[in-house]
Fold:
Amino acid sequence: MNTLGHIFRLTTFGESHGTAIGGVIDGCPSQLELDFDFIDSELLRRKTARSSTASQRKEPDQIEWLSGLLDGVTLGTPIAFMVRNEDCKPEDYEALKDIYRPSHADFTYEQKYGIRDWRGGGRASARTTLPVVVAGAIAKQILREKDIQIIAKVTEMGDAEQARREGDTVGGIVECCIKGVPAGWGEPMFGKFSAELAHAMFSLPAVKGFEVGDGFALAKMKGSEANDTFINKKGKITTATNHSGGIQGGITNGNDVVFRVAFKPIPSLAKPQQTVNRAGETCQITIEGRHDVCALPRAVVLVEALAAMVTVDAMLLR
Amino acid sequence: MNTLGHIFRLTTFGESHGTAIGGVIDGCPSQLELDFDFIDSELLRRKTARSSTASQRKEPDQIEWLSGLLDGVTLGTPIAFMVRNEDCKPEDYEALKDIYRPSHADFTYEQKYGIRDWRGGGRASARTTLPVVVAGAIAKQILREKDIQIIAKVTEMGDAEQARREGDTVGGIVECCIKGVPAGWGEPMFGKFSAELAHAMFSLPAVKGFEVGDGFALAKMKGSEANDTFINKKGKITTATNHSGGIQGGITNGNDVVFRVAFKPIPSLAKPQQTVNRAGETCQITIEGRHDVCALPRAVVLVEALAAMVTVDAMLLR
Amino acid sequence: MNTLGHIFRLTTFGESHGTAIGGVIDGCPSQLELDFDFIDSELLRRKTARSSTASQRKEPDQIEWLSGLLDGVTLGTPIAFMVRNEDCKPEDYEALKDIYRPSHADFTYEQKYGIRDWRGGGRASARTTLPVVVAGAIAKQILREKDIQIIAKVTEMGDAEQARREGDTVGGIVECCIKGVPAGWGEPMFGKFSAELAHAMFSLPAVKGFEVGDGFALAKMKGSEANDTFINKKGKITTATNHSGGIQGGITNGNDVVFRVAFKPIPSLAKPQQTVNRAGETCQITIEGRHDVCALPRAVVLVEALAAMVTVDAMLLR
Amino acid sequence: MNTLGHIFRLTTFGESHGTAIGGVIDGCPSQLELDFDFIDSELLRRKTARSSTASQRKEPDQIEWLSGLLDGVTLGTPIAFMVRNEDCKPEDYEALKDIYRPSHADFTYEQKYGIRDWRGGGRASARTTLPVVVAGAIAKQILREKDIQIIAKVTEMGDAEQARREGDTVGGIVECCIKGVPAGWGEPMFGKFSAELAHAMFSLPAVKGFEVGDGFALAKMKGSEANDTFINKKGKITTATNHSGGIQGGITNGNDVVFRVAFKPIPSLAKPQQTVNRAGETCQITIEGRHDVCALPRAVVLVEALAAMVTVDAMLLR
Structure:
């Protein structure tokens, strides 16, 4: 359950303050000369994105490549990589060891496993998405050669600076567009391109909504408004509008694949909150750690990365 | 890709106007005495739901059980079942054989497979969801013994009767609540309960949006508004509010699991539409067949069925 | 667990004396015009093979195709098919209802599921391999277009006619050769071509041994005897000998893939045997039913069918 | 394809002379206090086993645990670990860079991937089985608590010392016994306990044969000789003999699970061999590296490890 994909598969491992965070990519085509600068720049996008809205944790995020490469070229064998968790301050969290932070996964992990790594959210920390950025960057490189581009942006976000002053946090929406996917990708029934995207996006922490094309707005339209008329554009069949977001019957129609992902606000607040501890006693907490006010800026590269992985997987299945 | 689930697995088969529609359920616990009346009543919900808003196609929908049962009791082996497509009028569709209906899967299936069953939507027809109702009914029976209930309802829908007069169609939203799921179900990372639900719901035709808890509305909230405070309610730890929809970190927290699914309007319109045919020529179509004005009433039992399947699967994985 | 394959996937269902036996093939390429005569002839091979050594059960084995085809051409959607169990005489088995037949699966199924279909072996009956012949015939048709041939034969078998007179049964060995597989098929590590073949063959009832190339005999050789020297044969690199059976490091080397499968004797004996019943009481049984003296003749087409399925799957993964 | 198992899953990575060899174990139960001494002793068994018959490569084989543990206790999250390849002498292999060693995977990997790591066999090296020992040790620890024991031994082996003098190598057979598995484990049809064992064993380098119980010898027996009579032994139903090797219909019957694995001789010979190079030219090679004369002693712990993994997986599926 820590693996995503059918052919291009990423298995991730790591807790926020364990020894390392990393992943194993299985099914990556061989003879690909990895663009390490691009991978680093994607990791940097994740980091610099965090400027004003982000936490103060400083990790060098230096990737160590463990396998699957010969002189930087993929062998077709599993590509394992990891990043050490160097800047650990578990003592920041010790006070929270026995307390269930509201809307965090502390309580649910403990219910599931009977144990949890209480240091910074453990396996449920946003830090565990780092391997997704790495795998996504490789997927993007593969798609680049097919002239497929993936571009996401924040289209809605609360007022982060005000929230910071109030010790509060904000959520928002990321919109993503996959350009250049040919018609005919995706599988019918239980392997729809839209279903795979939905599954992937809901793997990100804090995601609570996903819609394709006009999404929820389609629920209010009439068929005559919502339908995408087919037209012949210089010999190529396409649609005049794109309410469907490039997917019909779960399969791409050649138009841009467009979707939106809703993120709830980060649950770690600087302002005091009421909660209960392990013993079931009511208590108050103030989360002092180094936390983002808003996950949206860093979510952009994550949404792109997962979209790239889903798209490469559909390409390889095809 | 025609299989859903990890332990409790449904594989479906069938085209709208082929010989039969059916499924194979693998991983159903043994020694369960199937409640055939309940299964029939669920199929009936799907049918009678279609009264005013639905198509005129009349199928007896008589299930034939092919395997996996001894005197109505499950053996633990695959349960295969089918329903014959008796009321076939493929000639209704012959006129559409070479035409791509707007916002249908005609074009995308042909791009993917180089061939498509043009009779009534083929594999992309809503009729192919019938096996989901059967598997869902069995899943509900399993959950009933654990006091887990699944109830969905239409919470938003266009004006169907007006649309019918105009030769148009409408979409809407189905909300679903899973009551009684214990805390600790679902998997971390890529197997989140929310991700499995999203995946399953996007398998339904016409689904374009999915949200858990307050969903997209959370994107506009502050953390202090969105967080669910833990409380001790008579010795049991629960949350005072349920903005998270019963899921935190992808794992159930013991509160009701609540989600909403957005359906676009049915794309088959009685009113004339412009499109192109296989040769790329512009043409006009009027879809005369027997079609629903709105898929929502019948979608309710489908949403419940898939939710039941995902929940049983999480239970068995646990 | 009733599914075999990664891309070309067969899910089977059915008990020996239930309503029907059948399967669902997912992942079969579209636009293939099925050679129904060939499929029937493969089923006939299974039946006529049973002449002198085989049971007297007469099944018309008329395949009913349920989905996935349009005018006999594959749509790319799941191909479901079934054969009804018409000639059922469960009363033949009623006497054995509470008795564990030696070296049959009666006891183990009951331990696993707490229930079993006691009529003719239920799910563990050799009859449940019928869908394998159908899927194998389709796989062979796909391979035929790539000039890949699969030929199996019985290379060792006890004296069946003598065994019949004695109320006894015999086992034997089937050898299979896959000709024309290009070098480079199969996956490393846990997806080796040899491992996939072994897995598939052990799915057949009564299989107790499997070896590739010189197999167990290699354990007695020296490296200098066992190694296959590479040679350049008219510009093509191949091996002078084929001790490895066409597979090195789990991947095909372009030479014939050769393997052998050992079958134990059929455990149903006409001569009296001692055993225990459900209550744990010692008792004697004489199995009167219509049973083969030797499974080998019919096993030939089964071994070929599974080999074809594994080879097509490797081809599609490639 | 670098993953083994359904619930207890091991994904491995690494090439013989890359940065590191390692694995990720997903699905290990939480709250297990790992017995690190036992894991080290299993790794040591692999190393010391190599005394007289083994290669001279010295690796400290110090495991670095990367994730999934808190104070040595499993969290239920993925357990990642690695061992660095410190003692690399790739120059030993440079001469072989363009030469296909007979009965090695050089040629097949290159055919499959168009590239290969020529340093010491790369991904096809026996060194890549190290993660199997680690995962197997954890699996054994889990089984120990259920009183299930796994013991393998070499039952047949060529004369290693003579072979060494001749610059040759030998193969052999490992027999393994799983004691204490309850009746009812394993799945029917395509998930048989025997099939899973066969699949796992064929994942080891050099394995060319696998048999359960009396295996190939059963092909020569009559049913009356091969059948295992059920008896009531002090209130417990068991079998008087164990020709079936503890498995009937693919499911365990409570008796010892017994199987044998045939290994071909190691293909790296000190004596000269003829082969071809990349250009297709005939050439002679003498493999000077540090190589085992016989893989059997170290294979014992590998066979046990895989058997333990398959057994734990069956237990968790149950």
